[in-house]
Design goal:
12 strands, twelve-stranded parallel sheet, alpha/beta, LRR_dom_sf, 404 residues, Endonuclease, Chain A, 32% helix, F-box domain-containing protein, disordered C terminus, globular
């Protein structure tokens, strides 16, 4: 049987990345122990360790600045491995808190940085001295996660990072929207928005982001609360004509009729909704190719699935229908024979029907829940696609292991 050292480097990196996120938060201790195992695994483990760096106080910032400023070969190797940088600022830390000027100095010195995440306490914003430094960021920086108490920070980044493609905005204080009257002076380049609001009334920044006349949005992902129907209708009227992927993790029945405005929608990920309500009437766009529906439990579908199957006849473009649940003990049907029969009938329509169980799925949906100390372990969590990829990968390993 081949050992871990005989695997290709790409497979080893995949294994380590999945091990790192096995508890749905970065598990650095396991990867650190892995890096001390042997020389062969050390480079892979270091790539995983330094690919996602989290800074919580000024001492960790100074340590990273030392690595970045060191001209040695090892320091350059580690600096080039940083792909994701998360920064937490806490006012109660006082002098030990990280200042955004340090962040602005650090960003241009990370040539392969792709994702910047900022959790800002109070009214932290970039100073006029720091703003020119941000313009020198690497072209690889295409994604940001901003959890501000003041929207000006998002505006500052949008105007100085023209290569941004993906924005994840976490709205902590819906009333802090003084920047909404300001029009972005640079061309709109981003195509993906992930938005998390703590209440259904905190969607003013999202309406502002989607109101730009030249915006061509490809993906909209809504975590936590969902806007009220009138606001959701306004958002869909702005972006529905070119939106291709829509992920809504807490959908409400009142918002379902407005899905019809997404005329070119190809992927729909939806949760928090009665499944029969979703398929009642012709509410799902005909262009939709992939639908993923998740809930805490995939309970018995014997009585509701005939209604769903009847609605599938009108979705001529659909080729994948996936039900995702957390509780593995709850089967989708009362018997395996019924499940196989429905899978066979769906295949006759050209639709691949599947049922997956993803433990802790709800915790991964950009909810930014704090740990037992009241501090989020990470603002960047594996999303729906990553969760499904992990299930497929683990299943493939279990299948291939007896063959080795």
């Amino acid at each position: 049987m081949p050992g871990l050292l005989d695997l290709p480097t790409e497979i080893t990196l995949l294994v380590m990345n999945f091990a790192k996120w096995q508890r749905h938060k970065p598990d650095y201790e396991s990867i650190k122990a892995w890096s001390l195992t042997c020389r062969v695994l050390t480079p892979c483990a270091q790539s995983v360790l330094f690919s996602h760096v989290i800074l919580r106080n000024i001492s960790t910032m100074r340590a990273l600045q030392h690595v970045v400023g060191n001209p040695s070969k090892t320091a350059r190797y580690l600096r080039d491995r940083v792909r994701i940088l998360e920064v937490f600022t806490k006012e109660e830390l006082g002098a030990r808190s990280i200042h955004l000027h340090d962040v602005a100095q650090l960003i241009p010195r990370l040539p392969n940085l792709r994702h910047l995440a900022l959790d800002l306490d109070r009214f932290y914003t970039f100073t006029p001295v720091s703003l020119p430094l941000i313009r020198h960021a690497s072209e690889n920086l295409t994604a940001i996660t901003v959890k501000p108490s003041c929207g000006w920070t998002l505006l500052q980044l949008l105007e100085r990072l023209p290569n941004l493609r993906h924005i994840h905005y976490v709205d902590q204080f819906p009333n802090s929207s003084s920047f909404l009257n300001h029009r972005i002076s640079c061309p709109i380049a981003f195509t993906q928005i992930t938005y998390t609001s703590l209440s259904k009334y905190g969607f003013k920044p999202l309406v502002w982001l989607t109101s730009h006349p030249h915006l061509k949005l490809d993906l909209l992902e809504l975590g936590s609360a969902v806007p009220d129907p009138l606001v959701f209708n306004l958002i869909m009227s702005n972006i529905g004509s070119h939106l291709q992927r829509l992920h809504i993790y807490n959908m409400t029945p009142a918002c379902v009729p407005f899905l019809g405005q997404c005329t070119v929608l190809e992927e729909l990920v939806i949760g928090g909704l009665n499944w029969s309500c979703l398929f009642a009437g012709d509410l799902i766009p005909v262009s939709c190719r992939r639908i993923s529906i998740f809930a805490d439990n995939i309970f018995y579908l014997d009585y509701v699935f005939p209604v769903i199957f009847q609605a599938l006849h009108s979705l001529s473009s659909l080729n994948t229908l996936t039900f995702v649940g957390e509780d593995k003990s709850a089967p989708p049907f009362m018997s395996d024979a019924v499940e196989r029969d429905w899978i066979r009938q769906c295949r006759s329509l050209g639709i691949e029907l599947s049922f997956l169980h993803v433990p802790g799925h709800d915790d991964m949906l950009h909810s930014c829940k704090p740990d037992e100390h009241g501090v989020p372990s990470s603002m960047i969590r594996p999303n729906h696609e990553t969760a499904l990829a992990r299930v497929v990968f683990v299943s493939a390993i279990r299948i291939l292991t007896p063959l080795c």
